[in-house]
Specification:
Layout: H1 6-11, E1 17-23, E2 32-38, E3 41-47, H2 58-61, H3 63-67, E4 77-79, E5 88-90, H4 93-111, E6 116-120, H5 127-133, E7 155-157, H6 164-175, E8 182-184, E9 191-195, H7 207-216, E10 220-225, H8 230-233, E11 237-240, H9 246-259, H10 265-271, E12 272-273, H11 275-282, H12 287-294, H13 298-310, E13 314-318, H14 328-341, E14 351-353, H15 381-387, H16 395-401, E15 409-413, H17 417-420, H18 424-433, E16 436-441, E17 453-456, E18 465-469, E19 472-476, H19 489-500, H20 510-517, H21 525-530, E20 535-536, E21 566-567, H22 571-575, H23 595-600, E22 603-607, H24 623-626, E23 633-636, H25 638-643, E24 651-656, E25 659-667, E26 675-678, H26 689-692, E27 717-723
Parallel strand pairs: 6-7, 6-15, 9-10, 9-13, 10-11, 12-21, 15-16, 16-17, 22-26, 23-25
Antiparallel strand pairs: 1-2, 2-3, 4-5, 4-17, 8-14, 18-19, 19-20, 22-27, 23-26, 24-25, 24-27
The structure holds iron/sulfur cluster (SF4).
């Protein structure tokens, strides 16, 4: 496929309308699109045919509104009001960067380099930023090395509350590789289990069409979820499960499979360790007990276990849904083990594992300083080791109490802590206590209201770089010039690095970065320039690579774990004093573990299922997207709503032991009776009023966490929902 590219479009800028092939620049999903420009301004996007991510999601449809929003930050700002007040004045870039660097160096002199912390959010998952700033050996987009040469190990990011429990902490001790090195073979699957996930809200949502194509070819679809998501609505079977109890369900199925000898004996005997211990442990999860815990009928537990074991083969679509409960990491491991012992690893139609080989993308590979541990290491060492980052849930202890050492400065980029983490008031206290807070973003955030400096970043439409996908790569050409004085995240980071004395460690600009990263790539930058739509590369993966020495650097057969096998009983977890087996823990704030509390708060609270009009807390100021959902909702089952006199659209308050927040009631049988789903993302300063008042994290709990990852229990708490008079919309109360 040959298409026109940006240079021809640039020539056509004078024309009224032109079309260019490129990438959507709203989120880091990097969807392949054709962009219609009118008078050089973005007008609309169309999906690019034949592209691995050739889709345009609802946010991409509204790209024009987002990019040219009057709310965009267009100039660097310096605070003139008190912290939190949100009063700023314009400042020149050089002055802002010089003053930030001076204060960081002063903090380094007085408190040590480790007193400076960076925080990277989901807004900064651009491919180029990954290779420029990834710590060596880490495949986690929110781990960035920017602050390492300064002498601080305290790089933190949204991996502190998202994805790494699933992608690293559960996967690496079990399989010896992260989930980024796996993929579901939908094309050849006979059974697809979509567990706690909704691919329709992925960015990009490309798995949906693969799953639906597999269904058309005859694959059976089962969705396990507390709510009937888009995925569950399209499945042959929806299995509702009480939030936080998925581990018990997986262990219950494992028990059936072992009792009925349905497991893959050859695989278990040759390629696993810990099976006998698993047999003994899972015996404590007979179907009737699993029904009591999970609310999944015993017969469904048995028939689903048999379906997975007999499918030959079954694959798994899963992401972050199971991370947020008292035993999130172990629950995820239980599901992985279920698929491993049924012979579904690296076989046609199963969970494919990628061969260990040299990555085609070069990295700067800057290591963390060796002599000081990051914040959170004392409580979550495995998290810190695997992600090479601080566990940001522990940042308040360092900022407010100086424990284990003080943190005085924080640089936040592309993130929103106050809307994303439990206990917004705690974070406000933290931000008020810092000597220096810098926020870079495209729009004003709640965090930025406390910042000393706010730096305006571009959207990806205004940047250059590249986008990588498995087996496909594409250059990112600049579609429009940066708006106002906004600058790319890469420019901002490298300008700071220069002023801190180590700018030479990073390529000089975005062009130099792409050339550096792609120098040894099999496609090559010249070929990519000739193909603005991107180029495929690589060959199909072989199967059963563990038999062929393809999963380990030493080329020995087996998995890249200490034993060379799938570690059902994990030696890595045992080394850190954690349960070696995938042990289930009942949610501590749940109806079984805390029946007294459940009398006052009888509904299971689940937060965080994505909606298509937002990207985390973003876009709740964009009128065209707000039309999709003008108000934040609590989804409540008709039986629970009727018992409380609540009707569709009623103003209600959701109450937990920690606070109460107003929401609009959406009465629907798409959630299980006895549980609710709460929209997140509210609480930002430029959002529509109803969203601004509805920060769901006044209800979640900073202290209730998974002991391995440190992730908060966003999805397994208790609440009550109460009808409010329509005039009673109020500010959240702690
Ligand atoms: S997923 Fe992201 S990159 Fe893709 S169309 Fe939507 S906003 Fe654009």
């Amino acid at each position: 496929m040959r298409m026109s590219h940006r240079s021809s479009a640039a020539r056509a800028d004078q024309q009224a309308v032109s079309n260019v092939v490129g990438l959507c620049g709203i989120c880091p999903g990097g969807c392949g699109v054709e962009i219609e420009l009118v008078e050089g301004r973005i007008e609309r996007l169309k999906p690019l045919k034949g592209h691995p991510a050739g889709v345009v999601c609802p946010r991409g449809v509204k790209a024009k509104e987002i990019v040219y929003s009057p709310d965009r930050l267009l100039h660097p700002l310096a605070r003139i009001g008190v912290k939190g007040e949100g009063r700023f004045e314009r400042i020149a870039w050089d002055a802002a960067l010089d003053r930030i660097a001076e204060r960081l160096l002063e903090i380094k002199r007085t408190s040590g380099p480790e007193a400076v912390m960076t925080y990277i959010g989901r807004g900064l998952f651009d491919s180029g930023l990954v290779e420029a700033f990834a710590p060596p050996g880490v495949n986690n987009f929110s781990s960035k090395s920017l602050i390492f040469p300064f002498g601080s190990p305290n790089n933190a990011g949204c991996g502190s509350v998202c994805q790494t429990a699933y992608g690293m902490l559960a996967a690496i001790p079990t399989f010896g590789l992260g989930m980024a090195a796996t993929y579901p073979d939908f094309d050849n699957a006979r059974l697809i289990v979509i567990w706690g996930a909704n691919p329709a809200t992925d960015s990009p949502p490309t798995a949906v069409r693969k799953i639906l194509a597999a269904k058309k070819k005859g694959a059976r679809l089962i969705a396990i979820d507390h709510m009937r998501s888009h995925a569950a609505a399209n499945a042959h079977q929806w299995i509702p499960v009480r939030s936080g109890t998925d581990g018990a369900l997986a262990l219950g199925m494992i028990n059936v499979i072992i009792e009925e000898r349905l497991y893959d004996r050859e695989f278990v005997d040759n390629w696993t360790v810990g099976f006998d211990e698993l047999r003994a442990y899972s015996a404590g999860f007979p179907p009737e007990e699993v029904e009591r815990i999970t609310r999944v009928p015993a017969a469904v537990v048995v028939e689903t276990a048999r379906a997975i074991a007999n499918a030959k083969h079954a694959t798994l679509s899963m992401y972050t849904g199971l991370e947020y409960t008292d035993s999130g990491v172990q629950n995820l491991r239980a599901v992985f083990v279920l698929f491993a012992i049924t012979g579904n690893l690296d076989v046609p139609g199963g969970i494919m594992l990628r061969a260990k080989q040299k990555a085609p993308y070069r990295r700067t590979n800057i290591p963390p300083p060796p002599d000081v541990k990051p914040i959170g290491y004392d409580r979550y060492p495995l998290f810190c080791e695997l992600t090479k980052s601080a566990q940001f849930m522990e940042a308040p202890r360092a900022i407010l109490e100086g424990d284990p050492y003080p943190v005085k400065a924080l640089v936040i980029a592309g993130a929103s802590i106050i809307t994303g983490y439990p206990d917004p008031e705690l974070w406000k206290r933290c931000f008020a206590a810092l000597d220096l807070l810098v926020v870079t973003d495209r729009f004003m955030t709640a965090d930025a209201q406390y910042a000393d400096f706010v730096l305006p970043a571009t959207t990806y439409f205004e940047n250059k770089g590249y986008q990588k996908y498995p087996g496909y790569v594409q250059l990112r050409e600049r579609i429009i010039e940066p708006l106002g004085e906004s600058r790319s995240d890469y420019w901002i980071f490298t300008q700071l690095a220069r002023r801190l004395g180590y700018g030479e460690l990073f390529p000089a600009d975005e062009d130099a970065l792409a050339e550096f990263v792609l120098r040894d790539h099999p496609v090559g930058i010249d070929e990519l320039r000739r193909h603005p739509e991107g180029v495929r590369f690589g060959k199909p993966e072989e199967h059963r690579k563990y038999e062929k020495g393809l999963l380990r650097e030493d080329r020995q057969p087996g998995f890249d774990t200490p034993s060379g096998k799938v570690e059902i009983a994990s030696s890595v977890l045992a080394k850190y004093g954690l349960d070696a087996l995938p042990k289930y823990t009942e949610p501590s704030e749940g109806p079984l573990a805390n029946p007294g509390l459940a009398r006052e708060f009888p509904l299971v609270l689940n937060t965080g299922a994505r909606i298509q009009s937002t990207f985390r807390s973003q876009h709740l100021n964009i009128p065209g997207l707000l039309e999709m959902q003008p108000e934040p909702q609590v989804l409540i089952h008709p039986v629970d709503a009727a018992a409380r006199g609540i009707a569709e659209g009623d103003l209600v308050q959701v109450r937990t032991p920690r606070g109460r927040v107003p929401f609009s009631a959406h009465v629907t049988d798409a959630v299980m009776a006895g549980g609710v789903e709460l929209n997140v993302g509210g609480g930002g300063p430029i959002q529509a009023a109803a969203w601004r008042q509805a920060n769901a994290n006044y209800l979640t709990d900073h202290f209730n966490r998974d002991p391995i990852s440190g992730f908060p229990a966003y999805k397994a708490l208790l609440c009550e929902v109460e009808k409010l008079p329509p005039e009673a919309a109020h500010k959240p109360a702690a």
